[in-house]
Amino acid sequence: MNTQMRGKTQNHMAPTGPVQTLPVYRAIDFCVRHGINLGEPIGHADEIELADAYCLKKTAKRERLSIVVDETGLSIAANSQLGHQTGAALHLDCVATFMAGSGATVEALILIETDATGLIEDTYLLPFAPIDPDIEYVLVKIDRDSARARLAEVAYVAFTRGTRITLANGLQKPIEELAVGDRVLTRDHGPREIRWIGQQTVRATGAFAPIVIKQGALNNEHDLIVSPNHRIFIYQRRDHARAGRAEVLVKAKLLVNGVNVVQTEGGFVDYFQLLFDSHEIIYAEGIAAESMFVDGQVRSALPADIQARIRTTHAVAESPRAFELHDGMLEPSVAAELLRSASA
């Protein structure tokens, strides 16, 4: 595909923002089986046609697309599994809604990679729920306006309903009972006031399926259930993660070992986000975990007054005290040992 993206320019500057990894399919693996664009892969909004029926190839595999998000937009990160040029521009084209024969709907984000001249280099599909191979999915809706907000939802760090948060006075309170202005205990700055509380209900599938850190996994008395990208603060007495330091931040999904940390799908889940004047480490079910961190991707989904309030306080780099473990750095067996060591 060699189509020009209208009004888009390419920027191959080195990425400097936070990195997020997205589990995507390549467009060539999701093609029209019946319809106007017969045999064609999914494309951008100007090309695709409503009522076309798409099918995922049996050989299709979800690949890791690592992206950098900053105020200027999206670009491909150096550690992307797909191997394209670092800094290549990515564009959030649209959110496409498909309907299977069973009547179930699946939303998917279409991302477009362009070259230095603005021509389309590749197209990726980020489904928000599982897509089964060899089943027809009919395109029923194209939404050009909500793509950035939907991507921000994937990046949100969130606790589930019922999670008990430690307050400044040492008491614990369910997150859904907290209010703006409540003072929460933070690891580095003592008591801090909540500035904003976000809430959303989503299908507990795919990128939104919650991670359950079971009772006792990190010396916690109750299960802690968080969104997949939520980072847990861990002090490792031995460097099982080979991070070169004792203090690490690790996304909950990287701790999944099938034993005491699992991912659960099915039904719906209520997610809550807590925002402070700065990015903090707080305590949820006794486990040190991060509060919401606002980068260029997440900021656009916040209310305007909140964006203005935290524009400078969240623009600074995160504390260097903690090293984040990225995708591919932690094998399940290592994750189990890391948890045992940290909770000892």
From TrEMBL:
Q: Where is the Hedgehog/Intein (Hint) domain?
A: 158-294
Q: Which domain of life is it from?
A: Bacteria
| GO BP | intein-mediated protein splicing
Q: What is this protein called?
A: Hint domain-containing protein
